[in-house]
Amino acid sequence: MAPARPVDELAALTGWTGHADAGISWEAVESALGLTLPADVKELSERFPTGLFCSFVEIYAPPEAFLAEARDALELLAEQDDLPHPVHPAPGGLLPWAGTTEGHTLCWLTGDPDPDHWPVVFCDDEFERWGEYAGGAVAFLRDLMSGRFRHDLLDEHLEGCDPVFDEI
Fold first, then answer.
1. What's the longest Cα–Cα distance across the chain?
2. What is the three-class DSSP state of 18?
């Protein structure tokens, strides 16, 4: 039997049984950004609609919403001084893929030519404190919701939270 995909594990963990729109096309988003996105975020958008994990981590499922939020976050990142990484479209730059209700930005670090190997990098709302997760976006969400991944930047917002997903 094949191992469960992280998106299936995340759905089981959160009790999510719904689906988002099947057959979503990411071509326009990838063209606008000038790169191919990781396969797991596409799987995430087919399984989960726009919503909140643990009333904290917000994802944007339809490609158009994803692109709009990514562009807004890129503008904010580009305005910052002294970031630890360049910002997309710079080679290896930060590319936002989600946020939190407390203003954290969740990004990929796009240095690897294979987008499925991009690590997750995240920061606080002031772009001063940073953390990193070595896996992809869906594995990050799964491990964050299950408690397998902990980071002081995020822990206080997840304390006592049941791993649930709410569509918004």
1. 49
2. coil
E strands, 8-138, in order: 51-53, 57-59, 94-100, 105-109, 120-123, 130-133
Contact 128, 151 (CB under 8 A): no
For the ranges 1-10, 15-24, 41-50, 128-137, the maximum mean pLDDT occurs at 128-137
Are 40 and 138 in contact, with CB atoms under 8 Å apart? yes
Question: Other C-beta atoms within 10 Å of 76: how many?
Answer: 15
Please give the structure tokens belonging to residue 77. Answer: 């990142």
Angle formed by the axes of helices 63-78 and 39-47, to 10°?
130
Each residue's pLDDT tens digit, 5-30:
999 999 999 999 988 765 678 999 99
Under a CB-based contact definition with an 8 Å cutoff, are residues 152 and 162 in contact? Answer: no
Look at 25 and 59; give whichever has higher pLDDT: 59
Q: How far is CA 75 from CA 68, 79, 88, in A?
A: 11, 6, 10
* Amino acid at position 58, single letter: E
Mean pLDDT of 74-99: 95
Average pLDDT, the chain: 93
Tally of residues, the chain: 168
Residue 18: CB atoms within 10 A of its CB come to 11
